[in-house]
Amino acid sequence: MSGLNKGVGKVEVALKWDAAPSGAPAHDLDLVAAVFTSEDPYGAPAQLVHFDSRSPDGTITLHRDSRTGQGFGDDEVMTLELDRLAPRYVRVVVGVAIQQGRGRLVFGSIAQTAVRVSEGYTELLRDDFAAVADATAATVVEFTREGSAGWTFRPLLRGFDTDPQTFGSLMGSARA
């Protein structure tokens, strides 16, 4: 947490996975952030940030985008400057979608998947997607703001069986 009881401020979400076996199609996982307003906190996102976009005000940026999972360390990294978001934004949900090439690819069929959410040197969350092994997309964490109390976070691991496009519209929906 930043400051004295100010809530979460600037957060980093890092995603990694192992590359597909030799000769197999590449595994492409994508970080996605959905931003919601106080008028519609569980409806359609006011902003959707992913591999080909960024937030208009620069508060949410994707710094690294891998299409294969090759290399060392984190494959995708997204920074969320929650403390800079306009007051009308009260909820941010971050998730991961698997790009579907040939066949149906789920988290359980991709080796060494891991997501980490941190603020500075403080790790807020780490997960390996084992609980959503049969899903093609999953939410990871939810950040909410209540007035001047600042931003809070909570784990929100929830699997979806959908394509990346549809996931963007579903990821912020209220739990059934």
The class by helix and strand makeup works out as mainly beta
**What does the overall shape look like?**
globular
Can you summarize the main beta sheet? 5 strands, antiparallel
**What's the total number of strands?**
10
Bin the helical content.
under 10%
Proportion of residues in β-strands:
35-45%
Distance between the termini: 30 Å
Q: What spatial order of strands do you see in the largest sheet?
A: 4-5-1-7-8
Q: If you compute it from the alpha carbons, what radius of gyration comes out, rounded to the nearest whole angstrom?
A: 16 Å
Overall pLDDT confidence: 86
Low-confidence stretches: 1-5
- SSE order: EEEEEEEEEEH
Helix segment count?
1
Structure description:
The protein is mainly beta and 176 residues long. The chain has one helix at 164-170, and strands at 10-16, 29-37, 47-49, 60-64, 76-81, 89-98, 114-119, 122-127, 137-145, 151-160. Strands 4-5-1-7-8 form a five-stranded antiparallel sheet, with no helix packed on it. A hairpin with a 2-residue loop joins strand 7 and strand 8. It is globular, with a radius of gyration of 16 Å. Residues 1-5 have low confidence and may be disordered.
Q: Care to give the gist of this entry?
A:
The protein is built from one helix and ten strands.
Throw out a few tags for this protein:
176 residues, mainly beta, five-stranded antiparallel beta sheet, disordered N terminus
List the helices and strands and how they pair.
Layout: E1 10-16, E2 29-37, E3 47-49, E4 60-64, E5 76-81, E6 89-98, E7 114-119, E8 122-127, E9 137-145, E10 151-160, H1 164-170
Antiparallel strand pairs: 1-5, 1-7, 2-3, 2-6, 4-5, 6-9, 7-8, 9-10
